[in-house]
Amino acid sequence: MSVAYSDVRELKGPLLVVGDVDRVGWDEFATLEVAGAPDRHGLVLEVDEDLAVVQVLEGTDGLSPGGVWVRFEGRPLHVRVGTDWYGRVCNGRGEPLDGGPPVAGVARPVSGWPLNPTHREPPREPVLTGVSVLDTLTTLVRGQKLPIFSVPGLPHLALATQVAGRATTAGEGFRVVFAGMGLTHADIGYVRDRLEERSAAGELVLLLNAADDPVIERILTPRIALSVAEELAFGHGDDVLVVMSDMTSYAEAVREVAAARREIPARRGYPGYLYSDLASLYERCGRIHGRAGSVTVVPVLTMPGGDLTHPVPDLTGYITEGQVVLAPEVHARGVYPPVDVLSSLSRLMRSGAGPGRTRDDHLPVAAQVLAALARAREAAELGELVGVSALSDTDRAYLAFRGVVERDLFAQTDDEGRSLVDSLTRAWSALAVLPRRELTMLSAAMVAEHLPAATAPPDDPDDPDDPDGPDDPDDTDDDRAGDAEDGP
Amino acid sequence: MELSTGRVSRVNGPLVEVLGLDGVAMAEVVRLGPQRIAAEVVGLAGARATLQAYEYTGGLRPGDHAEATGDRLAGLLGPGLLGQAFDGLLRPLSGAPVWLSPDRPDIVSDRRWHLEPAVEVGAEVRPGDLLGTVPEAGPVVHRFLVPAAVSGTVTWLTADPVLLSEPAVRVGDVAVPLGERWPVRVPRPFTERLGDVVPLHTGQRVLDLVYPIARGAAAAVPGGFGTGKTLLLQQIAKWSEADVIVYVGCGERGNEMAEVLTELAQVPDERTGGRLVDRTVIIANTSNMPMMAREASIHSGIAVAEYYRDMGYDTVVIADSTSRWAEALREFANRTGELPAEEGYPATLASELAAFYERAGLVTTLGGRTASTTVIGAVSPPGGDMSEPVTTATQRFIRSLWLLDRDLAYARHYPAVSWAGSFARDADAIGAWHAAQGDPGWAARRASATAILAEADRLASLAEVIGTASLPAHERMVLLGGRLLRETVLQQNALSPEDGRCSPAKGAALLTAVLDVIDACQRLVARGVAATTVEETDLADLIRVREEVGPADADGVSRRRDEVLARLEALR
Question: Which residues of B touch A351 (CB under 8 A)?
């Protein structure tokens, strides 16, 4: 057994400085024996000759110099990984919470190794989630990292668990590793409830660091989750979906350690290496040439103040392959999931959807729906200024389109799974509200094949301003003339 | 020379301090610990050397062995670079293991190359002269040149295939190996910088027609996340008319690098008949790879480009993203305790950026060839804040700025190059070049397009207040014209085989077509046709023509223009 060092020189925030150590390596794992209390754990942040700075995962409350013995493990933290993890519930450090024995398996370093990019297989197969707005407009792809940006109070956990519970690729279900960081007990209960089916089937791994659990422990939680997922995917051939929530709590733990070390902060007190730190987590998704499994990562984060430029969502957005943004305005209109589709994007959609992946018309339809929504937003802004009745017929058609697409395509219940065919049919029906000349992104052949023949009238019948609006009659005549010319 | 050894005294992530390395020089490479991790000297104070390590230092301990190498950070340049992927230190990734742990063995290529001599024994040669060529897989001829410091009489030429490390030629009594170890931070020498302005055709209309770049110039592409920065750079990598492309993935996504590798291997290069990958060198230092190697990757990339420039090729270095490189500088400066300037970045940020962008240039090489290195750097401003230090400092050192606009990207206007915020300082000179090449209308078309776009923007904000219907007819036509320009000319569908790239002729035809249609619309309203009638005329076939005719089919565009004009003339 290794030597225990007791010469604690300094205790500060989550940090402990121990002296007189011999040959301790950087990033080693350490166990702290505390008189009359459970062991604590730590990671070496710096070694300078015989001094080692240790970050204590459980915090330093109650520790005093003279009452702690530090043992170094001689190597960075390893975690045992393998299929024994299925069905287990552990704390943020990977210790069982379910009364079972410690999880057995092969030991792997929690920080993992970078995957050689030349061995990566570019993600190609769509993951169908049964959520129309995601499947149609921001298709998730096997091996992708696609975060959910939310604000407190929105149903991001409902959406994340709906995806986790229903995601399939080529008809096969996913295994799910859920890493909870700083979640309230109510949220944890909700997550367990929502993923009951996966859990009962032995397809779920839960790692839970609650809001009242040690903060610094959160730094470890996603790393353990990803190490477990990597082995299940690339060692065992499973398709694994890793949901990590809430990344903002994780980043706050990183910031706390940086502040205790008096590091020079970059933006909003977060350390300059937050990008690389987050990347070391998110980049562990993917697929490998010649191996069956995949790791798909869905981080969930709440944007403080709903601010998309806050460092956590901002840096996340730079690393991940797109983002799904939830918006309070959409939530307020009663639409679930409240996705702000114009801010959302799946960068890998172009390789995971379309001919041979989903359906030939999928990508053009998605592009057309988004372009039309962008135009509808402009029309709505204009309408607020000048009154809807002063808008052109075309602009009013766009407004009507927006209502239909939100009602029929985007909104669904949090336990409903829709097929992609159903979703695309709904998208075409909504597009039918627009005049044909506006569908510039769809080929004539696609329009002929998919556009419903009987279209709803472009004028919104619900709009009371419409028939008696103050537009000059000439304008209306011109509209008719234009339409007539378009006819044949 | 005796190489000194020392012992590690302190480890703080990539920052390592070593005692007892006598005679070690700044920027020298030192090997650390049992895994012989590469590190570079960045500070010397008495017996203590401060190093930045290029690998994960987990497990490295005070007391571990450190060994000076006498070398600066260098990459091995030679045949076999094209079509392959390397890490930031120019070590091959293609044959490396799946997981990149620091203890992986260095890969030494055992491939032998056949030299086809261009000189005979007895020839007098000077630096940059052609010694021979080495056949490679692709169409780019590898020219084996006399290195910069060597001249004299050729005394021996190999007859057998040689390894990169083996001498292929003797000049006087100097053995010249086929592969050249070059310290990547040092610019490769050339005879003189040329002031000529020759455009680099990128195949992207918004760049070629509105914000062009000259060969040997530098451009920056700032854009928040989700603005399509990487896709635009990949399109440039695929379609620009350069001989050699060096694509540096610096702190970016692994899946993207995989995508680039896979895609380039599939796409044929119509200009040469080979595959695009055969003219491309990929340097991949993804965001989860060691941070300090990210810092080196930019220099490695440009050194490779300069190597091919010296052979007489037009090269393009694409660095995605320089912000990640700057972050690596910041990260390390913070660890060494350097006083920060803006936002924690070191005070040297601007000079480091200048040193990088200034390695671009159109030059006469040592061997008398005219060749260029064009540098295109992506910038990822945090929070989309264009006033942050990397973005602002970069703008001082570049000739073209392609600013990506989030609102355009959200409206799925790709490439989301803002016509209001971008600039091209060589646009006038490039207009003169086009005029000299027989297209005197280039500059006028560009001027008309930018004027209509700017006027349309102004009118659009006015229309938001008073409504479009209140604008006079000719202004409504400007709004329509702005839309046609955006959707027909500026937007380009990267996924479309017809529209993904655009020849100069097709680009010119599209712009001419739209300008002609706008003129026709103005004439219609001037003779009393109602603006609404014109606005509601179906012009979708004009917009779609870019995707319906081939990438070089200017005639197809002109025919479509004539159809549209005929239809418009029929309005009354």
Answer: 259
H-helix segments, A127-220: 132-137, 156-166, 185-194, 196-200
For domain B442-569, the CATH architecture is Orthogonal Bundle (1.10)
Average pLDDT, chain B: 92
Q: Are A486 and B536 a contacting pair at CB < 8 A?
A: yes
Tokens of B432: 């003169």
Confidence of residue B241 (pLDDT cuts 50, 70, 90): very high
pLDDT at A1: 52
Residue spans per domain, chain B: 5-73, 116-180, 192-436, 442-569
Closest-CA distance of chain B to residue A322, Å? 7
- Architecture in CATH of B5-73: Beta Barrel (2.40)
CB contacts under 8 A, A 194-233 vs B, are none
Domain ranges of chain A: 4-75, 80-350, 362-482
Best of A78, A120, A141, A485 to disrupt the B interface by mutation (most B CBs within 10 Å)?
A120
With CA atoms as reference, the chain B residue closest to A273 would be: B331
Cα dihedral: A37, A39, A44, A50 (round 10) = 70
Residues 466-495 of B with CB under 8 A from A: 466-469, 487, 495
Question: Given a cut of 50, is residue A48 above it in pLDDT?
Answer: yes
Query: Which of B264, B406, B536 to probe the A interface (max A CBs under 10 A)?
Result: B536
Report pLDDT for A272: 83
What is the model's pTM? 0.89
Amino acid identity at A480: R
The correct CATH number of B116-180 out of 2.40.50.100, 3.30.360.10, 3.40.228.10, 2.120.10.30 is: 2.40.50.100
Report d(CA A67, CA B296) in Å as an integer: 45
CATH code of A4-75, in short, is 2.40.30.20
- Reply yes or no on whether the pLDDT at A478 is more than 60: no
Residue A72: pLDDT above 60?
yes
Alpha helices in B336-426 (DSSP H): 349-357, 389-395, 406-410
* B489 DSSP assignment: I
Task: Show residues of chain A in contact with B10, CB under 8 Å.
Answer: 46-49
Decide: B376 and B219 in contact? Cβ < 8 Å. Answer: yes
pLDDT band at B1 (very low <50, low <70, confident <90, very high): low
Residue A237 sits at the vertex; the CA angle it makes with A233 and A239, to the nearest 5 degrees, is: 55
Q: Give the pLDDT of residue B292.
A: 85
Q: Do A118 and B258 make contact, defined as CB atoms within 8 angstroms?
A: yes
- B280 and B86 in contact (C-beta within 8 Å)? no
Residue A454 has pLDDT above 60, yes or no: no
Residue A168, pLDDT above cutoff 50: yes
* Fold adopted by A80-350: Rossmann fold (3.40.50)
Interface of A with B in 367-396 (CB under 8 A): 367, 370-371, 374, 381-382, 385-386, 390-392, 394
- Bridge partners of B17, per DSSP, are B10, B50
For residues A301 and A278, the answer to whether their CB atoms sit within 8 Å is no
**Interface contact flag, B533 A370, Cβ < 8 Å:** no
ipTM of the complex: 0.86
pLDDT at A464 over 70: no
Domain B192-436 CATH (choose: 2.60.40.1120, 3.10.129.10, 3.10.580.10, 3.40.50.300): 3.40.50.300
Residue type, B1: M
| Average pLDDT over chain A, rounded to an integer | 89
Q: What is the DSSP letter of A120?
A: B
Instruction: Give the pLDDT score at B412.
Output: 80
CB contacts under 8 A, B 84-113 vs A, are: 85, 93-94, 96-101
Kindly list the residues from chain B whose CB atom is less than 8 angstroms away from the CB atom of residue A120. 254-255, 257-258
- Nearest residue of chain B to residue A440 (CA atoms): B540
